[in-house]
Each structure stands twice: as structure tokens, then as C-alpha cells.
Write a structure and sequence with these properties.
The chain is of the alpha+beta class. The protein is built from 2 helices and 6 strands. It has one domain: Rossmann fold (3-Layer(aba) Sandwich). The longest helix is centred in the first third of the chain and has 11 residues.
Length: 105
């Protein structure tokens, strides 16, 4: 997909980045970074796990822990604004989703 440079104020990536294999993720995140305007925002929500990836229920998926996901995002040039676990109000072990909000640095 060809994305225009510095075009968008925000990207909403809800459950859409976790199927990206880890070897492709740095490139994909750099492309998303380039398509954002200066100070643009990226929201992502991904299932969390123990940094394992492979086929799950017939589709490819990556289950990163918070530190690994943060490392990918920071390496792509993003600065974290906020993160939280979903669904709200449950013990952490019952919150399988990590939601993060990032700004283009």
C-alpha cells in the first residue's frame, strides 16, 4: 500500500497491527510514522502476550508484551502519550488487550 507523506492527523489501528509478522513490523510502523503529520497521533490496540507469534485460530498473530511493543514504537519514532489495558475494571490477567496512544516525534 502506498501512503502519502505527512497527510494524516491520526491513525486508528484497533486490532489491525497484531497480524503483522515481527520481521515486517518495523517497516510498517515507519510507513505509518511517515504518513502522519508532525505531532500526529497513532492509536493501537493489540492482544498482549509473551512475545510469541505464529498461527492462532487459522490466522497469523503476534502477542507482544508491553515492553516489546513499546520498543517497536519508540524505534519507529513515536513518543507514548498513554496506555491502558482492556477491558477496564478487571484484574490484569483478565485484560488481554493493550491499548496505546502515540505521537509522531
Amino acid at each position: 500500500m502506498q501512503l502519502p507523506e505527512s497527510r494524516f492527523d491520526g491513525i486508528f489501528a484497533n486490532a489491525s497491527l497484531f497480524p503483522v509478522p515481527s520481521q515486517e513490523l518495523p517497516r510498517v510502523l515507519l510507513e505509518l510514522h511517515k504518513t502522519l503529520k508532525l505531532r500526529g497521533v497513532l492509536f493501537s490496540s493489540n492482544p498482549r502476550g509473551n512475545n510469541n507469534e505464529g498461527f492462532s485460530d487459522g490466522r497469523y498473530a503476534c502477542f507482544f508484551d508491553s515492553d516489546t511493543w513499546h520498543g517497536y514504537m519508540i524505534s519507529a519514532g513515536f513518543v507514548e502519550l498513554h496506555h491502558y489495558y482492556r477491558p477496564p475494571g478487571l484484574p490484569r490477567e483478565r485484560q488481554p488487550w493493550l491499548a496505546t496512544v502515540w505521537r509522531k516525534a
